[in-house]
């Protein structure tokens, strides 16, 4: 079973308008509302892959009810802790050229609900793969680091993938419970504290920086594929040129692909191809957190993985 | 009893941000969420005036539940018909200089719910003053005109104030059931089909245009006060210079003041002063649809009404 945590779930609203004019009134042509947040995207993709996935998280108020209903509409197994306040709304205003975003912070998670979460998690005893993805909400009397660490220690798990902001990740990497991270180039540079000039430098950092000792690192490079450190071996993934429609959620889809590969005991090369294919397939689709199985099968043949 | 209809209620969200940059991600400094829509503002003000007011309307989904909860938090009596879909969200992005708005259209109101509304309304038998305020939602098999006309004929009422968009109002004015309208200058010009050059021209139109025959017209002129036709007498209201904080909802507060004045048998001059004071008090407050009783009392002394 793959357990996915989405601590700060949201209703993602996309407004399609002709042109955003500051100071004006707009009536959108189309309005799309989805359950959102990075963890939810990961779980959605695993659900489409027919994997045995359980989504956990905090939800609040009527927005939380809407999130839960939307997940049940796609029969995604979920267990949420209901907290005070209202789950956040994340707004994207699309005018064809630009995406302007307004992101709410979400409700404060009181200690009583943090305890309830841990209690529920401990009752599950074990899972094979666990994913923590997306920002941590505002917590009463706890830092994001403490919260994530407690979660990781509340259930027996063979493999933990953590995909949170670089500032949190840096400290989290000190813990043995973090097995895999998936930064992009910007996040990687933020993590190591300086900007890499070229691929060779990134390879060198992956090999020697103590931050990544005994960690799997899936460093995505956009159109240039990825650099992967897995079981202390280094790989380079080359991807084909594809028609990108909407890259939002591609990182989350890649995380889903990694989790799927680990859960299904794929060898390193196959796991890397599969994860890359999930990310690209998401980018080839309009909707965020959606992949196509036939696209993935086609892509796997076109992705090349070399050991370096 | 004053009955207020709000057919297309919304959750009004105001995001306060430092600067709106197209194509960028914004995390708002403050987020304010209110039950909104012109009818709800009218009812809110009447509720603050401790008037016996009942709010009716359509609400839908979890957003509808949020609207209802917010009204119950301020103990505003309400009876809604719950329909399919989701009540709309109206977003205002404020960066100190500009207000950029995104207004959803709201759900389609199926015939079955329109009938349920009429049925509920007919059971009430009578009210003294009735207000229809704000845009009509998308209706199955009915025009806004037919819908409003049916509502006006479903309950015995002594005085009906209708404050909807000018395009609907023009046709509605043919009905005897419409007793009072409250256009601003722009809406007035739209209603009569040409732009008035000066006050005298507006007075002339109010006196002689058959559109306004036997109708009370409360024509607001912003800082220039108002022109009022009441019982076929004409009045001019002069208002003092005040510190305007947020004029949104001032028209709705004026409507509430008119309804209050009619319900409480104020003479024409007092009704006009009271309605103007409600509008100004709203504009002097940050929040939409909020007035201060002490401000109103002070303002009434400063507003001058002359018969013309």
TrEMBL record, chains A, B:
The lineage of its organism: Bacteria, Bacillati, Bacillota, Bacilli, Bacillales. Pathway: Carbohydrate metabolism; D-tagatose 6-phosphate degradation; D-glyceraldehyde 3-phosphate and glycerone phosphate from D-tagatose 6-phosphate: step 1/2. Belongs to the carbohydrate kinase pfkB family. Belongs to the carbohydrate kinase PfkB family. LacC subfamily. One of its GO terms (cellular component) is cytosol. The keyword ATP-binding applies. The gene is pfkB. GO terms for molecular function: ATP binding; phosphofructokinase activity; tagatose-6-phosphate kinase activity. PROSITE patterns: PFKB_KINASES_2. This is Tagatose-6-phosphate kinase. It catalyses: D-tagatofuranose 6-phosphate + ATP = D-tagatofuranose 1,6-bisphosphate + ADP + H(+).
């Amino acid at each position: 079973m793959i357990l996915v945590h989405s601590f700060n779930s949201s209703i993602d609203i996309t407004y399609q308008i002709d042109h955003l004019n500051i100071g004006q009134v707009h009536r959108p042509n189309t309005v799309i509302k989805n359950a959102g947040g990075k963890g939810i995207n990961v779980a959605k993709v695993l659900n489409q892959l027919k994997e045995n996935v359980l989504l956990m998280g905090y939800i609040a108020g009527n927005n939380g009810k809407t999130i839960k209903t939307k997940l049940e509409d796609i029969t995604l197994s979920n267990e949420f802790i209901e907290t005070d306040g209202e789950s956040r709304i994340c707004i994207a205003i699309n005018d064809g050229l630009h995406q302007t975003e307004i992101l709410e912070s979400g409700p404060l998670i009181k200690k009583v609900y943090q305890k309830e979460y841990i209690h529920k998690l401990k009752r599950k005893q074990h899972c094979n793969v666990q994913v923590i993805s997306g920002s941590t909400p505002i917590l009463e009397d706890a830092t994001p680091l403490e919260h994530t660490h407690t979660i990781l220690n509340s259930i027996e798990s063979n493999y933990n993938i953590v995909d949170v902001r670089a500032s949190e990740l840096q400290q989290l990497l000190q813990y043995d419970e973090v097995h895999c991270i998936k930064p992009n180039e910007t996040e990687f540079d933020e993590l190591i504290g300086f900007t890499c000039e070229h691929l060779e430098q990134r390879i060198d950092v992956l090999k020697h920086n103590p931050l990544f000792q005994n960690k799997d690192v899936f460093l995505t490079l956009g159109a240039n594929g990825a650099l992967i450190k897995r079981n202390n071996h280094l790989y380079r993934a080359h991807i084909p040129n594809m028609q990108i429609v909407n890259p939002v959620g591609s990182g989350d889809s890649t995380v889903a692909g990694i989790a799927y590969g680990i859960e299904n005991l794929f060898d390193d090369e196959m796991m890397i191809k599969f994860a890359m294919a999930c990310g690209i397939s998401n980018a080839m689709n309009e909707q965020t957190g959606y992949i196509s199985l036939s696209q993935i099968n086609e892509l796997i043949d076109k992705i090349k993985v070399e050991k370096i």
